[in-house]
Amino acid sequence: MTRSLRSVRWVVGSFALSLLTAGWAFSQEGGLAKENLDLPYDAIGLNEEEEDAPEVVSFYGQTLEGDGFFYVIDKSGSMQDSGELTIAKREVIKNIGEFSERVQFGIFFFDKGLTKFPSSGAPAEANPGMKSSAISFTQSTAGGSGSCPQAGLVAALNMANQASSKHKVIVYLGDGGGTCPGSDEEPYLRQTLAAVSAQNWQRIQINSIGVLQYGAVNEKFMKDLASMNGGTYTKMSR
């Protein structure tokens, strides 16, 4: 065997050894095939998919999936007097504690007026300091009178539209009331649905959860709110 031929074979053999060391092998057809190692061939891609997967929390027993959560809570007199406002606060606080730092969120309590967190209108990042502030805000929010959900829903959409989250969900909780001062309830609720539809250009999912006792007009509002925005309607019974 000539020296040049031996050199060529040595180079080829070294190259094949380097491929095997890196996790490659020659298939029976003579091509290259990836050996099974501890990490899959597309491990980086799988990690990226896992990072993008939505988080799962339970609110009033309902499963919410996302990385952007926005709560619109009725704090009218009936909610306060029945104890439902206390229950709602407890559920919101539970979810806040469950959020990882990649979650963005916002909280809106409405009666005839509106209070929100953060007050800036920008979505909150679920870091420890912001979560602590949100819990304090929720605990200290008092009940009121009147029921004007339109302002809360539109404000929640404005905040959610700003969020960089990929999986956003809004939850409305209340009795479907629209006893907003100066407005007849049924036309006001229809107007609220139209305002929400106009603002929800990102097609964010809106779920509605009904508590207390309410009439057909209120139930229709909550059902329409959910169905028109890709969400679910749930009636809680106690």
Key features of this structure:
238 residues, 2 domains, Rossmann fold, globular, alpha/beta, 8 helices, 44% helix
Blueprint (SSEs and pairs):
Layout: H1 3-21, E1 24-26, E2 32-34, H2 43-52, E3 55-59, E4 62-66, E5 68-74, H3 77-82, H4 84-98, E6 104-110, E7 114-117, E8 124-125, H5 128-140, H6 149-162, E9 168-174, H7 185-199, E10 205-210, H8 216-227, E11 233-235
Helix pairs in contact: 4-5, 6-7, 7-8
The poorly predicted ranges are 1-49
Shape: globular
Described by strand count, sense and barrel closure, the largest sheet is: 7 strands, mixed
Number of helical segments? 8
Helix content: 40-55%
Instruction: Tell me the β content.
Output: 15-25%
Number of domains: 2
Number of strands: 11
CATH superfamily of the largest domain: von Willebrand factor, type A domain
So what's the oligomer here?
A: single chain
